[in-house]
Each structure stands twice: as structure tokens, then as C-alpha cells.
Amino acid sequence: MRVMGIESTAHTFGVGIVENGKIIANERDMYLSEKGGIVPTEAAEHHRKLANEVMRRALSRAGLSLEDIDLVGLSVGPGLPPCLKAGLDFAKSISDSIVEVNHCVAHIEIGRFVGKLKDPLTVYVSGGNTQIIAYAGGRYRIFGETLDIGLGNAYDKFARSIGLPMPGGPKVEELAKKGKYKELPYTVKGMSLVYAGLVTAAEKLAKRYRIEDACYSFQETALSMLAEVSERALAHTKKRELLLTGGVAANKRLREIMKAVAEEHGASFYVPDREYCGDNGAMIAITASLIGKAKKSEDVDIKPNWRADDVEVLWIKK
Ligand code: ATP
Ligand code: FE2
After folding, report:
1. Of 22, 29, 169, 240, whose CA is between 20 and 30 Å from 175?
2. Residue closest to 124 by CA, chosen among 108, 148, 101
3. Ligand 2 centroid vs 178 CA: distance in angstroms?
4. In what order do the strands lie in the sheet with 98-102?
5. Strand 268-270's sheet: what is its strand order?
6. DSSP letters of 38-77?
7. CATH class of residue range 2-108+276-310
């Protein structure tokens, strides 16, 4: 079976192709705004303009034509409505039968696929999302998450406020290497994270101390909060694998901390290559292959607030 996956939930328009369980194409184009943030309607316009070209590139890479595709998977949420709608319109223009794929579930499935993992605890940290997820009783359950902004956006917001260029995450990480710790508010409520207060306090800190100290203190606090919740989830679920994914997984300090958390609990640690950590079409194709043809439908629609725990995971048998 040949499955095409389409991703368009936020910045990235991606098309991936999977043939008999093997990734044979994964092409993308990313919307970049001047200021580094995202204007949803502009991103959607980008997706509409580039969709066909990205798909052509993927087909050519796979040595296939559109008629060779048996099933199309579309990431219908969670995401920004204008971007989702651009993906929906494009998918409908190329196929009658589409399967709906949840974006967060797809991050887990591509991680399981490339890392050959069975049943991981997933720490998914991107610009817009920060969730700690694990399979239990037929669904991916969310064991912890941010109550306000995603960790990547927290890095970006803080970075912008101290005048760093976008994307801010890598810059903050770099500056943090030369910083010293100053106290900042640490907010974990049960299994939930809150980042906005930390961002504001770190901005203030940057006015009184060296920028390196503000970056270091921001990063150590933000990552410790995530580590605390992840560690508790690992202890509770007793999973034997820890999967770290999403754009923020590029952060070396985060990898170091998560690896230590995994080791402490006798779990293996895995981070997919960059190509599969960020948003991509292959993850949608892989997940659509698992969902299968039986679930295809003609009245597919966008689901901007679709949560991972709303998805019935029928492809994992226990
Ligand atoms: P999603 O829709 O899944 O939320 P996104 O487009 O918002 O996706 P990604 O592309 O997965 O996010 O990741 C981009 C984010 O990752 C940005 O916020 C960026 O600052 C952050 N990031 C990238 N590298 C690093 C790093 N080294 N340290 C911290 N944050 C980083
Ligand atoms: Fe994502």
C-alpha cells in the first residue's frame, strides 16, 4: 500500500510518502515571517501556494505519480484553523478518500517507527505544544501538559523580549552556556506546567543581570519543570522507553536532562533525527498507514482543538 501524508497544522507544509511500511519521500516547505512569529492567514497562504510543488517534489522523489497513491492521510488538528483549512482544501483536491490524522499522535508514531520503540512515554515539546503522553487502555493519555504556552514559544517570547533574533530557542541555549543561576519562579501545578510567569520574570532579570545569566536561569528553570513532570509520569506509568520529540528536542541541555531522567528509571532514551522531530509529512503518512483504509471518509473536516486522548488507538494490541 502507498500512503501519502499531508501536514499543514502550523508553519510547515509537508508531504511524505510511505510504501509498504517504508518512508520513500518526505518533503516540506516552511513559512517564515519577517518577525519570526506566525501570522496564521499568511502561513495558510504560503501552504496554498506551495502545496502542489511540495507534493510534486515528494512524488518525484518516490518515483511515483498521484494515481499510484492508495490512501491520503491528513493532519486535521490540533492546529491553526486557516492552516488546517489550506491542507484540507488541498487534500480534497487530490483525493476523495482521506483518513484524519491527529498531529500529536503522529509525532509519537513517527518516533516509535524510526526508533523501533514499542511503548514509550513521549515528551512532545514544540513551539505550540508541550505534552507528556503515554499509551494506556486504548488511547494515548496526556499525563502532563502546559496550561498556557508551549515551551518553544516560551523560549521565543523570552528571546524576543531581550532582542534576540528568531527562532529564539537556539540563541537562548547558546547564551545559557556562559550564564550563572539566579532565582526565577518555578511553576508546576500537579502534572501541569505554566510558563508565562517565568518568561516575564526572566525578562525582568535580564535588565538587572547579564543576559547570559537570564538565559541560563530561564532555561534551567523551564527544563527542570518539564523534567519534574516527565519523571513523575515515567514513575507512574512504568514505561521502559522515553521518547523526546518536537522542535525543542534539538536543545542539548534538554536531551541531557531527559536522558538522565530515563536512566534514573531504567528506561531507554531516544530522540529522532531532526527531520522527524519537527513537523513533517512522513509522520502523517506513517500514522495513516496504521489507521488504515477502513477509516477513510469523504466528510473529513478540520479539528483545531483535537486532543491526542480523543483518538481511539486501534492499531496497538495489548
Ligand atoms: P507545532 O505546531 O508542533 O507546535 P512549531 O512549528 O510551533 O510546531 P517546531 O517546528 O516543532 O514548532 O519547533 C520550533 C520551536 O522549537 C521554536 O519555538 C524554537 O524556538 C524551538 N527550538 C528550536 N531549537 C531549539 C533549541 N535548541 N532550544 C530551545 N528551543 C528550540
Ligand atoms: Fe508538531
Report:
1. 29
2. 108
3. 30
4. 22-30, 12-19, 2-7, 71-77, 98-102
5. 188-189, 192-193, 139-146, 130-136, 121-125, 241-245, 268-270
6. --HHHHHHHHHHHHHHHHHHHHHHHT--GGG--EEEEEEE
7. alpha beta
Q: Which fold has domain 119-273?
A: Nucleotidyltransferase; domain 5 (3.30.420)
Pocket test for ligand 1, best of 28, 110, 126 (most atoms within 8 A of CB): 126
pLDDT bucket at 38, cuts 50 / 70 / 90 = confident
Q: Which residues contact 228 (CB under 8 A, 6 or more apart)?
A: 188
- Per-residue model confidence (pLDDT) at position 173: 98
The residue type found at 235 is A
- Count of Cβ atoms closer than 10 Å to residue 221 Cβ: 21
Name the closest-CA residue to atom 12, ligand 1: 127
Strand bridging mode 139-146 / 130-136? antiparallel
Statement: the pTM of the whole predicted model exceeds 0.85: yes
| Rounded CA separation 310/308 (Å) | 5
Q: Return the C-alpha cell found at 301.
A: 473536516
Closest CA to 191 of 153, 258, 236: 236
Chain position carrying cell 502534572: 191
Mutate to test the pocket of ligand 1, among 248, 277, 279 (most ligand atoms within 8 A of CB): 248
Residue bearing cell 477513510: 296
Q: Is the CB of 29 under 6 A from ligand 1?
A: no
* Joined grid coordinates for residue 177: 552556556
- DSSP one-letter string for 171-239: HHHHHHTT---------EETTEE--HHHHHHHHHHHHHS-HHHHHHHHHHHHHHHHHHHHHHHHHHH--
Can 2-108+276-310 and 119-273 be said to share one CATH topology? yes
Domain locations along the chain:
2-108+276-310, 119-273
Paired with 29 in beta bridges are: 13
Residues 236-250 pLDDT 10s: 999 999 999 999 999
